[in-house]
Design brief:
The structure is a homodimer. Chain A has about 475 residues and is α/β, with parallel strands linked by helices. Chain A contains 14 helices and 16 strands. In chain A, the strands form four sheets. In chain A, strands 4-11-10-9-8-5-6-7 form an eight-stranded mixed sheet, with helices on both faces. In chain A, helix 2 crosses helix 3, helix 12 packs across helix 14 and helix 13 packs across helix 14.
């Protein structure tokens, strides 16, 4: 603890020191056994006579806050102190818009037998050893200074190769911006491309955090219906400046954006002079043979901003994603990232570069895909067998979740709680709709071992 | 590389495969020696006969793109291909505001003998071994799922202890939000507290990235003059909703916000019902005995949001900072962080928690402070001896840079280049002023070994 001395203060130096230490003990910043700073050092530090410090310490000792120790020096005496809970008045209030953002919901995993929420991955599949080796190699050097906000050249080059090899997306490293994940990429695009009040189109149902994020940018967020071929292009508002889509595995319904729809969407964007964000969040996990070609490959005039993430392929806790954008946007995206949070962390960038270049990601995906496909098949099978009448399972060829559409009654607000009471966590789709929600939900199988699929479905059907 | 097959395509399956691979080779996605996928796997993947794949590969071999390998399999033939530089048309243009952000300036350190830019730290002082041990311990487990956007409870608790011990700032762990650095904290505060058009006050001269960041939020950013006691409280516009200050070591001038000014500022904020951001970016490095008490300690009604960073104490490349805010703001700050980039990375949080709790940061600062103080003294001495007439060195008791005020002529746009030509990188203060800049600059000694101070100053004075 640092001590302060204010020569202009009415209180004596002794009193000032005494009160600072006493307060620190009373509110728990110093606890039993903590050693007080040596009097000589404090005196030199504050430019006071050593006797002043000794006197202050003596007063604390006299009052029982502090005790002398055999080897010399003073330590805080044994007492029980409550952890400080400072009372700060409510002088600062969030704006109505900020207050309307949904508060963070701490994950209740501790109590759940089956975590079937969407977006979970199996931490047990994480390639701990390989990742650790790559991190270790990166940690050989000090992390260094601020660096390129768009990411290191080495990582962007590795990502360009990876995108080409795994998704057939051809871009130069200069077109890539490393981000802290999908939302971070969309946030940067919104910052550089849109003005408050601009119309943006999102899928309805869609991914609630992206809608919230765009709303927080004071944009006019229009929900566009999704049918079994994906987003209904004819329903996109003509004024939309940007459309966010999930072509390979629609979130949440799981449909694939149809071939004709893709052409329609690109044609629409050209006519309307709009940009498209292709959010390719989990298509690395496809469960059937056949193409899952990114929309970006069909784009002939650079309107599609491709957004990828390692949240599903590796772990959400790594907080790394990337986007590929037209050259024209890169300087502004880079400048916007720099003013907000400068650059990606150095060690993660170096580790991920090694991880990609040494082929660890391909190998990990090869293994993980086999496991997830088995779970997908199993969950699909169990649900088809057991879902009660009125509930319909939607087909999905990729990703780590399945969608179940409930009866066309108003959504059942208690379903999530009823399921939780039976140990099942699921993702309700209520928040995925801006209007007319149905009683639908997602079942994520990312963190659900294959052997536990049947009991999970049994517990779920009870809740339904 | 993933291959696609479109049954609706006019071209035959063989032609489609042939063209995809040929194009990948022509634009460098596949390079000499790369192995083509085994025909059996591709056939199974795409639901095609194996002979179709064999035929496509055969055509590529016949045309010289691919060659058979002794052990079986096909590899890309030796050829020189240029790296693809795809030509994307300029269909997407940044907004005028985004386009006006200053573009990233890649650091020219490779060419410089003396890197005296502000904000540099000595990577050689970084406690590589201790940090590596903490990271290793954190890497024992998989990084896991999404977690609390405000940061882990363990890290927030460690930070509360650290702030209390090192700066005398008493807050509960719940009041702390872990960020990716100072700007990230200010970005979150602007998101939750301000509306476009709101007036915010910054110091003039000040830290350009913060001004740019606030401007990017469409705020009305007012520069308030700084004199030798710090920000001139009487000059803060009455309409200001937020004031950003650097009380312990004003950026860039280095002055300490005077005792009376602190009281005036807090009184002003109460009258105006405004919030204050205290940016305490480098006060851990103080070079004289005596108090450097945070403004937060004097705040009696919870108006001061305290912002700290590990960019100077450890490394900017770690990308971790924190803020302590009134309880009333925490839910909105947490929600805002969640929609943008969810949460801090797990491994960094765990490693930093260990690093703080095991006392490594205190020990590192103890060592680093001794080194930096020596450099500070030396640079101060050299500059006082050698600065040409008209240049004035400003006193500074803390931090990692000194400010030099040039002659009151218009700023010299070529100074930075003249210095660079002599191997000296410095930080011009031109961008720190919105109006009336003078020919001033900063000399950072963070990355300048003590033994190199004298030659650096010699090279600098030549440039002046």
């Amino acid at each position: 603890m640092e001590l302060f001395f204010d020569p202009d203060d009415d209180r004596s130096a002794i009193r000032q020191l005494y009160e600072q230490i006493r307060d620190a003990i009373l509110d728990g910043r110093l606890t039993a056994g903590d050693r007080l700073l040596p009097t000589r050092g404090v005196a030199a530090d504050l430019g006071l006579a050593r006797s002043t410090i000794t006197e202050a310490y003596g007063r604390l000792t006299a009052e029982g806050y502090v005790e002398g120790r055999a080897g010399g020096g003073s330590v805080v005496a044994e007492r029980l102190v409550a952890y400080p809970d400072s009372e700060m008045p409510a002088a600062l209030t969030p704006t109505p818009l900020a207050a309307s953002l949904r508060a963070y919901d701490p994950a209740p995993e501790a109590r759940a037998r089956f975590d079937l929420r969407a977006g979970r991955v199996d931490a047990g599949l994480f390639p701990v050893a390989a990742w650790r080796r790559c991190q270790l190699a990166a940690l050989r050097r000090a992390p260094g200074q601020y660096s390129d906000p768009a990411g290191s050249t080495a990582l962007r080059t590795a990502l360009a190769h990876w995108m080409a090899a795994s998704r057939g997306v051809t871009v130069t490293p200069e077109q890539i911006v490393v981000t802290s994940g999908t939302s971070h990429a969309i946030d940067l695009v919104a910052r550089v491309l849109l003005e408050p009040g601009d119309v943006v189109a999102v899928e309805e149902p869609g991914y609630p955090p992206v809608r919230e994020l765009l709303r927080a940018h004071r944009l006019d967020v229009a929900g566009v219906p999704v049918d079994r071929h994906g987003i209904v292009v004819d329903a996109i508002p003509p004024a939309a400046r940007l459309v966010c889509v999930t072509p390979s595995h629609q979130y949440p319904l799981g449909v694939l954006l149809g071939r004709q729809r893709r052409r329609d969407l690109l044609r629409w964007a050209r006519r309307a002079d709009a940009a498209i964000i292709e959010d390719d969040y989990d298509s690395e996990f496809r469960h059937t043979p056949g193409p899952l070609e990114p929309l970006h490959r069909l784009d002939r005039d650079g309107r599609v901003i491709y957004v990828g993430t390692f949240s599903k392929t590796l772990s959400p806790a790594i907080r790394t994603g990337f986007m590929a954008a037209p050259h024209t946007l890169i300087p502004a995206l880079t400048a916007a990232r720099q003013i907000v949070d400068w650059c990606p962390p150095a060690t993660t960038q170096q580790a991920l570069t090694l991880f990609l270049n040494d082929g660890h990601l391909s190998r990990h995906l090869h293994r993980a895909r086999a496991v997830y496909t088995q779970r997908h098949t199993r969950l699909h099978h169990e649900l088809r067998q057991r879902l009660p009448a009125g509930y319909r399972l939607l087909p999905a060829d990729a990703g780590l979740h399945l969608a179940v559409v409930g009866p066309n009654t108003p959504p059942d607000p208690d379903l999530r709680h009823r399921a939780a009471a039976r140990g099942v966590l699921l993702t309700s789709l209520r928040r995925s709709y801006q209007q007319h929600p149905t009683a639908s939900f997602l079942l994520g199988f990312g963190a659900l071992p294959t052997g536990r699929v049947a009991p999970a479905v049994a517990a779920l059907t009870e809740a339904l």
